[in-house]
Amino acid sequence: MLQEPTEFEDSMSSESRLFGAIEAGGTKFVCAIGDESGTIHEELRFPTADPASTLAQACAFLKDRGGDPLRAIGAACFGPVILDRRSPHYGFIGKTPKIGWNNVDIAGLLSREFSCPIGFDTDVNAAALAEQGWGAGRDIDNLVYLTVGTGIGGGVIVGGLPVHGLMHPEIGHVYPRRHPLDVNFAGICPFHGDCLEGLASGPAIVARAGSDLAHLDPAHVQWELQADYLGQLCAQLVLTVSPQRIIIGGGVMSQDRLFPLVRQRMQHWLAGYVDRPEILGADRYLVPPALGAQSGVLGALKLAVSAARGA
Amino acid sequence: MLQEPTEFEDSMSSESRLFGAIEAGGTKFVCAIGDESGTIHEELRFPTADPASTLAQACAFLKDRGGDPLRAIGAACFGPVILDRRSPHYGFIGKTPKIGWNNVDIAGLLSREFSCPIGFDTDVNAAALAEQGWGAGRDIDNLVYLTVGTGIGGGVIVGGLPVHGLMHPEIGHVYPRRHPLDVNFAGICPFHGDCLEGLASGPAIVARAGSDLAHLDPAHVQWELQADYLGQLCAQLVLTVSPQRIIIGGGVMSQDRLFPLVRQRMQHWLAGYVDRPEILGADRYLVPPALGAQSGVLGALKLAVSAARGA
Q1: H helices within A210-294, ranges in order?
Q2: Cβ separation of A142 and B164 shorter than 8 Å?
Q3: CB within 8 Å: B274 and A171
Q4: Superfamily grouping for domain B7-125+304-309
Q5: Does the CB of A243 have a partner CB in chain B at under 8 Å?
Q6: Which of A79, A93, A163, A83 is nearest to A123 (CA)?
Q7: Is A166–B269 a contact, with Cβ atoms under 8 angstroms apart?
Q8: Is A85 helix (H, G, I), strand (E, B) or coil?
Q9: pTM
Q10: Is A159 on the interface with B (CB under 8 A)?
């Protein structure tokens, strides 16, 4: 969706048409200028360093607009983050293992630097909103977006809005049942050992099998384990938040052949209890993202659009 | 909350002040007339028989109002139910093992018999709404209501509204990890064997331990198993829907000493990952219902009040 603005669009530019987007990731920042249609006009990517210099670089990019103020800015941030608007720490990053980033006030900094409304949410809630608005979840009010890569995370949309509550979903840390062919691996999550992230994230696969999925024979047991753990997660989600669709992205899921395997295992664990046609013919239920690597920054753009509307 | 109307209240009665409520349970129906404050003026309980005679009895009670029409009626129904308003089967009971009740059109029947708005939801979503409005979840927008008795069910409120989505939550059928002291019991769920309902419902306890909790010594291993399975469930819910409070009712939970044990096990499974004070001092986080056995019929009343407001 990265496009050069056309001459027509350029002539239409006005202060009320452009939004700022910041995807604040643990390893890289993606900053962009975009519009309400989900079109990105400019984009800048750079590695995440210390908070002061990283955030200064993001602000400098967003300010360099030739005098056009932005209508709103959205920040989609690695977690945990504080989303309770009644908290004095609203808009902060919470207790993170990422050195230097504990208790950094992201939304507050943006509010001080810019006079426009600021949207703020987790990277995965934002990606879920982007997929709902412009991607694989169009016209669906209840969906889950999962990413399976360096870690495992999930955003949840219920009734069209991202789930916050006490904090926000941390789906990667639920405990699947151990597969009978996976009894010796302890898992790699520093908090939980063998929670889902500890068993089925990219680094967990490498720790157990000595290689990532792309380099493992399709007959290797790792494929079966991976499909089973993710299928269990999807079944749990169906029973808990009843999404109308589950979108799974992230580096591990770039192995397309995982999808039919995960669908099978989801159905195995549901055991016919949820006999909806959407589940039984799950090809359209459990799908890859449509926005790919852009889902994060487009999620930030979506947060900006929502913030401009006062949501 | 069952009260005789005072003379003053009685003289205030008008067609716009009273609501009808039907708690449609698998073993009994509770029908009531109540008002917006959660006060029940009249109540009738009777065993659930075949759909035609049972629903006729419910309608007769609600019609016997001396000519005062009801402002709205709410039906809180055992599941599964169809909540998708775009479905031709909206308001129906789905595929239930309860003989004769498959595909019964509850909301449609009420719409034909009464001219007022009809609210319809699962019994547990309704109980969650009642606890939120008048009970242990006052002023909280995100909560889970669990009932642990003959079965295990859960209602989920996100952003003030009950979760529907593809269907509705069926929390009783998630799979906890098996406790190391519980390896031989196969579980009793006809669909899943050893899902949560199969391991930790009232009948599961009796099947495993030969007695209900009330008759087991506090040192009996069953207490530990029960606390562990429910603690796992609560941890999973924290990580998935991030409730601000979890309310647990039902016959099994009438054993008060379960609460501190379940809180401990929830914290064990979260392993410090969610370091919110609400979780760490969980006495006010994981609580019994305030409405007790009335939560179902008050839930139906709440559905009626919402329906009158067009929600």
Answers
A1: 221-240, 258-270, 277-280
A2: yes
A3: no
A4: ATPase, nucleotide binding domain (3.30.420.40)
A5: yes
A6: A79
A7: no
A8: coil
A9: 0.92
A10: yes
